[in-house]
Amino acid sequence: MRREERGQAAVELLGILPLILAVAIAAAQLLAVGYSSVLAGNAAEAGALALAGGGDARTAAREALPGWSRARAGFSADGGEVRVRLRPPTLLRALAGEFEVTGRAAVEP
What we know:
The protein is of the alpha+beta class.
């Protein structure tokens, strides 16, 4: 190995690290949004099932969510449709409040 090439791999690694970090953060954020979407859909379905059985849709939907997400959720029940809006967690403070997913489920009255 020539003397001028020593440490070249370390320099290249340091140059690519910000890109690797950005891709990892983006992937984790996409996973958080996807998981929150599944949670919102499941909660809406639980609310619709409660509505079909004569129960309170909002309470059933709220109880179907894990504890951390209840404070980030909004619920509405109109006619036979239950909607759950959920703000997924974000890794960067600058993205807080930028994402929102909605789950919907309906039953026939």
